[in-house]
Amino acid sequence: MEILLSPPLAFLLYIPLVLIIERLGKVLAGPENPSPIKESAYGSGEEAPVTAAAPGYRPFFLIAFFFAILHLGMLVLGTGEFSAAILPFLLGLILAMIALLLG
Question: Where are the transmembrane segments (predicted)?
Answer without folding.
Answer: 59-77, 84-102
